[in-house]
């Protein structure tokens, strides 16, 4: 009998070699946490960041005799997501108990849906970097409840292995989840990692447009499980898959899929076998590590939830929800691109930067598209990088940015002063008008005060005055600069220049 091959320390195969020898197969499972005010089966609050175990009750911590009641809005939002994905909505769907033990699952089972999901057979067309489109087929979207959160103490990796003890917070237990499962994604070839990222990006944008979730990957309100397997070239039988759990950024989705392809290829090339298992993504180096053996459906011992009746939405309800669907993100992008006169490449850059929705929101508040783009893509992007947050994570709203732009347009602020106002908003000092007043930032329009500052600057630089009088008008810039410094940037540079030239008898 041949001894098993040790592949624990094998180096991943070069990506080009992987593509030459194997065809990847992917399946994406994305969990969307709904931002309903209460949990899926009880009345507990769902606010993110509350004190641990402060948002719990007998139902969501599984005390004996406590009975669940379905959150109607959670069901309606599940239907809304299904319709936006082009899914069929089941006339009757049923909840099931998914049985497994894990410390953060207080009932030892999760209320989910198994063979009767609420939505099925949909598709999502995703745009790739070069502008081409790839259709991802949706197998199902089903309702379930989230688990609690474990914090492992004493482990260098933050995971349970090596931990001395774990802390459990059940605030998240019972929060409504929609799990969206794709059909196998076949034929992607070398673009598989890119397609994985593009799919999760498009799905996140869609969910945000529906206003059913915060869609914050950094806070876990969207979590992606990436299933990857390889088929040797020329074969059609799927290989054994791994499931990389809870990948929490778009870049990480792409990196995790690419790494798993290279790792699995190296194992297969060495004569080893791929283990059917979950894996953990390591943010620090872009690798994955083994988790636990992957259960099959039989392992979970699904059976119908006896305490909940089937969900049977009427056609009238489904059509009323369909009528509330917003303009879908890709449709809106095409419209906005035409209205703004930007290229497809510029539009993709705005989307990739996470700026498009913010710019549209600023334009909706009255700003010109060019001004809104300039603020979000330039200064505010710099501030996001400096503060190490996503652009959408900055503590400033499109309404506030539009007001700053309006103040500049009214001549009450220069661009330099406007940046100070924006900094104040970002630092939590209040609304733009309040910051202008508190900091005394409004542009000085009193000609007598400006003339005094001009006279003082001219007196201090007689050589510059001589140049201006000799016709070297560009020399006025030195005087303008001195006046701007003296007025702390609150003078209107154009008006200052007019006063300087008039004082020197030039034009």
TrEMBL record:
Keyword Ligase in record: yes
Sequence ranges assigned to domain Asn/Gln amidotransferase in this UniProt record: 357-504
A GO molecular-function annotation: asparaginyl-tRNA synthase (glutamine-hydrolyzing) activity
Enzyme Commission no: 6.3.5.-
GO terms under biological process: glutaminyl-tRNAGln biosynthesis via transamidation; translation
Alphabetical keyword list: ATP-binding, Ligase, Nucleotide-binding, Protein biosynthesis, Transferase
Domain of life of the source: Bacteria
Keyword Protein biosynthesis appears in the UniProt entry: yes
Annotated catalysed reactions: L-aspartyl-tRNA(Asn) + L-glutamine + ATP + H2O = L-asparaginyl-tRNA(Asn) + L-glutamate + ADP + phosphate + 2 H(+); L-glutamyl-tRNA(Gln) + L-glutamine + ATP + H2O = L-glutaminyl-tRNA(Gln) + L-glutamate + ADP + phosphate + H(+)
Classification via PANTHER family: GLUTAMYL-TRNA GLN AMIDOTRANSFERASE SUBUNIT B MITOCHONDRIAL AND PROKARYOTIC PET112-RELATED, GLUTAMYL-TRNA(GLN) AMIDOTRANSFERASE SUBUNIT B, MITOCHONDRIAL
Family: Belongs to the GatB/GatE family. GatB subfamily.
Described function: Allows the formation of correctly charged Asn-tRNA(Asn) or Gln-tRNA(Gln) through the transamidation of misacylated Asp-tRNA(Asn) or Glu-tRNA(Gln) in organisms which lack either or both of asparaginyl-tRNA or glutaminyl-tRNA synthetases. The reaction takes place in the presence of glutamine and ATP through an activated phospho-Asp-tRNA(Asn) or phospho-Glu-tRNA(Gln).
Quaternary structure and partners: Heterotrimer of A, B and C subunits.
Name of the protein described by the UniProt record: Aspartyl/glutamyl-tRNA(Asn/Gln) amidotransferase subunit B
Species assigned in the record: Dietzia timorensis
Name of the encoding gene: gatB
